[in-house]
């Protein structure tokens, strides 16, 4: 029989729970810590997702508004070809004294009414910064309008700077200015 050392026992000692005292509590605490980090990360992702969703909603609204004005221009082709759909850069809706929904209007009156209704709707659904509609028709070409819509979107804690490190003039601490530019080309019957 081999000689056994004092550190080697011939018989195995039975498992005693006292040897593992506190290890399960430590495992539970580490698990809770990991779950709390996961929950905080998930909450941050949800907040970012909601912010991006709102930004996408604003952009979709701007595109829809530009398309709506383009359709109004096509419906009033005489006013459009005469250059009546020009709106100087503004941040509020111009008032129209004429209500073309209650009576028949000529092309000029309808253009003023359309611009008033359109800009009021834009002011109502966007955090509007500026609106403008300009006639950019080159000489002898098709009638072309440029529709510009600018709005403010809330932003996070990001700071923007220009090339020399100064804060950009188009942003402040809580919003940034976004814009959509659309071009509408109109054809008359002879083109």
UniProtKB/TrEMBL annotation:
Q: Which residues form the Type IV pilin Tt1218-like domain?
A: 45-115
Q: Which InterPro entries has this protein been placed in?
A: Pilus_4_PilV (IPR013362), Tt1218-like_dom (IPR054402)
Q: What keywords tag this UniProt record? A: Membrane, Transmembrane, Transmembrane helix
Q: Where are the transmembrane segments?
A: 25-45
Name the chain's protein: Type IV pilin Tt1218-like domain-containing protein
Source species: Sphaerotilus microaerophilus
């Amino acid at each position: 029989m081999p000689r056994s050392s004092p550190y080697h026992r011939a018989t195995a000692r039975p498992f005693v729970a006292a040897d593992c005292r506190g290890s399960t509590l430590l495992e539970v605490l580490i698990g809770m810590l990991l779950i709390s980090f996961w929950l905080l990360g998930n909450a941050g992702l949800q907040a970012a997702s909601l912010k991006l969703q709102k930004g996408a909603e604003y952009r979709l609204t701007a595109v829809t508004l530009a398309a709506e004005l383009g359709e109004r221009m096509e419906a009033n082709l005489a006013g459009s070809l005469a250059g009546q759909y020009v709106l100087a850069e503004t941040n509020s809706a111009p008032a129209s004294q004429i209500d073309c929904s209650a009576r028949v209007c000529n092309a000029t009156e309808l253009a003023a009414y359309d611009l008033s209704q359109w800009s009021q709707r834009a002011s109502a659904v966007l955090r509007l910064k500026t609106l403008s509609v300009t006639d950019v028709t080159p000489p002898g070409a098709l009638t072309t309008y440029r529709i510009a819509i600018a709005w403010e979107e809330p932003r996070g804690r990001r700071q923007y700077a220009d090339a020399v490190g100064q804060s950009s003039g188009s942003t402040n601490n809580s919003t940034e200015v976004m814009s959509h530019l659309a071009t509408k080309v109109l054809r008359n019957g002879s083109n």
